[in-house]
Amino acid sequence: MIRFLKPILILFIFVSLSQTVLAQNVNPATVDVSKLSDAQIQKVVDEMNKKGLGIEEAIMMARAKGASETQIAEMRRRIEALKWTSRGDSTQLKKLDEEAELESLNELSPKTELDEEIKKDLTKIFGFHFFNSEKLTFAPSVDVPVSDSYTLGIGDELVVNIYGASQQIYNLQVQSNGSVYITDLGPVQLAGLTFSKAQYKIKNRLMSIYSGLRGDKPNTFVDVSVGQLKAVKVNVIGEVNVPGTYTLPATASAFNALYLAGGPNEKGSFRQIDVLRDGNVISTIDVYAYLVDGKTLDNIQLRDQDVIMVRPYLNRVKVAGEFKRDGWFEAKKDESLADMFRYAGGFSENAYTHRVELYRNNTRTMTFKDVAAQDFGSTILMNGDSIVAGLVIDRFENKVSLEGAVYRPGNYEMTEGLMLSQLIDRAEGAKEEAYMDRGVIIRKKKDYTFESLSFSLRDVLNGKTDIALKKNDKIQISSIFDMREAQTVEIVGEVQFPGTYAYAENLKLADLIYMAGGFLEQAEVSAVEVSRILDKKEIESLTNRLSHSFQFPVDRQLKMADEDAAFVIKPFDKIYVRRAPGYRPQAVVKVQGEVAYAGDFGLTFKGEKISDVIKRAGGVTPEAFVEGASLRRKHEMSDAEYEAKLALAKQDTTMNEIDIKRITYQVVGIDLVKIFKKPGGVDDLQLQDGDQLLIPEKMQTVKVSGAVLSPVALTFKEKKSLRKYIRSSGGFAQSAKKSKVYVLYANGTAESTRGSIFGRRYPKVKPGCEIIVPEKPEVDKTAQAGKWLGITSAVVSMFTAISIAIK
């Protein structure tokens, strides 16, 4: 945010207005202090403490901005009264009387806000940000010692301390006649003298009444220091953001005043800022000298009634492109491109420095100049010039690259007369696996098309031949592995680490099984199969043969017959270790509920039935509800099914990947009563791995749900019909589909309502079942009405046609 000077914390401007008002200009003379509330006065005090502003300093600035003595006296009285009525913060009240530094004057002066677009353009002017930075302040300090060159004026105070044989302290103030009055000595004229000359004059005059000050060995001494300094009023005029009269400490400099005035505006000069005293220019400030070189020689100390004049700029040029700084810069008369480059910080690291583009306004049309490096210092700038520096071309003049089977591949400097053998030596030679029969050089021709040059690496290394290199050559030296397909072998099946392995010469079958971690327990080791692709001679003619197959018995200790052990694996062979035919993975079923020994049971033979497992579980308990026994069967997706589901979920935003479960369970309806009556019969199902058999305890309730008025669980009663259970649940709802009522039994089976010539026959109700009343599907009444309207229209049309035909 551009820090244009805000309302000056002039005591009267902070009148408890909202924070938005603080950014407006308020005339202190229009504020009626007597009508301000205590809360508003407290806000003034809080802001003074926050900004580190003493009451006397604030009053001094208020007076400078037009506040009357009556207003000032009233405000001082209100603040003093607030001290006595305040209930606590003594530290805060103490701050009202302390003299603090004017560190935040930049926040306390009448700056105004500019339009966002104007601010954006102003920040491009070099130097503008300097006077409007939130992190940089030139607020004057009141606590710095004065220099010997400080000129005394009316209102300044001096403290004269006599010590030694005689002791005395004089507090002297320069009166309106320009003199101070010393007791027993009279007036001493000091106004207009520098501080060092005033010290000398006071000492000389005091010698007339203190004889101990004279001689080579004085016994009395004098020290002269500055007490309270007068405030100075300075006028800042011309092309500044906020021109006006500013009251500053006597130690303030020209930069202090410029900073409070917001610095030069968009038309103001940063190179010619005059300080006038008594109508004469005593100093001309060039802000660039400070910003670029850090020089502050022209930043003189101000005096009362000094005038700072910011004149309009003369020449402003635009700098763009590959410079460290870009934007608008101001040029003095006879300054050149070289001077402007220095202000812009010089070229960037990617700049083309041999020439720049200069666009010039010749008051009628635009002209273009191509300025070479040797003319930078002699090309004088004019108002409106635009300078552009381009990028260096992304091309190398002295580079070659070497890639492939060498120890140090990469880019190398192209030196005069560089030969291919020398480049390979720089790369510390070719690797052992380098392909010796051929290498390739890709070279750019003059028209920047490419050509290929081949060479024998063996002949180059032996010195039989050599090639002179050129800039931008790319040399490729391949390895023997680059020149052939990657050779691998694969082993699958019943080994610990099936997969693909790198081929090695003289690799035996037992070696590969060893590398794969050996056989698993279920492996069939009597017939390990090796599948081999056709060799190069075989693929030269078209036949029906696809591959070769070999089978070998391999001991679990990887011992083989001598003839079989000599069999050598070839590249791309695939080895199959199959599962033994008699191996069966262990199958486990879970029996839960009312049995003697609930838990997991391993299936002992293929085709073991429900009755067999329940018998092994000790049979059912007396509390078992045999009619409600159910079976849950595990279903596990294959890898392909699971991946397909996940892919579908990623495409469909309504599906959640987390909800996709690989293992699910499906309820299988069983009738355990029939199974117990006829074990091994049709109803006695064979169990599978993962099955869960649940035998609940006796149930005494019936649940009614769906389209009834009051879904509820009811006590089971013998011979109570389904319709009575529904009446006990409040009866059918209006949306109930009565003809589709069905019962879901505890064992997972269901039975629906059946129609007959005698009416509906509802299913029998058993303990633990659930009566479900489905709802009628919703019907679009608008579509239904349109349908009937269409039928009616067709019928009317038909009868009309018939009547016409009869006539």
Automatic annotation (TrEMBL):
Membrane disposition: Multi-pass membrane protein
Query: PANTHER family under this entry?
Result: POLYSACCHARIDE EXPORT PROTEIN GFCE-RELATED (PTHR33619)
Q: Where is the Soluble ligand binding domain?
A: 316-363, 400-446, 489-533, 702-743
Which keywords has UniProt assigned to this entry? Answer: Cell outer membrane, Ion transport, Lipoprotein, Membrane, Palmitate, Polysaccharide transport, Porin, Signal, Sugar transport, Transmembrane, Transmembrane beta strand, Transport
Positions of the SLBB domain: 233-310
Among the GO molecular function terms of this UniProt record, one is: porin activity
Q: Name one GO cellular component term.
A: cell outer membrane
One Gene Ontology biological process: monoatomic ion transport
Give the subcellular location: Cell outer membrane
Just give the chief location class. membrane
Q: A Pfam family in this protein?
A: Poly_export
Q: Which residues form the Polysaccharide export protein N-terminal domain?
A: 145-210
Organism annotation: Ancylomarina subtilis
Give the family per the record.
Belongs to the BexD/CtrA/VexA family.
Return the protein name.
Protein involved in polysaccharide export with SLBB domain
Could you say which residues form the signal peptide? 1-23
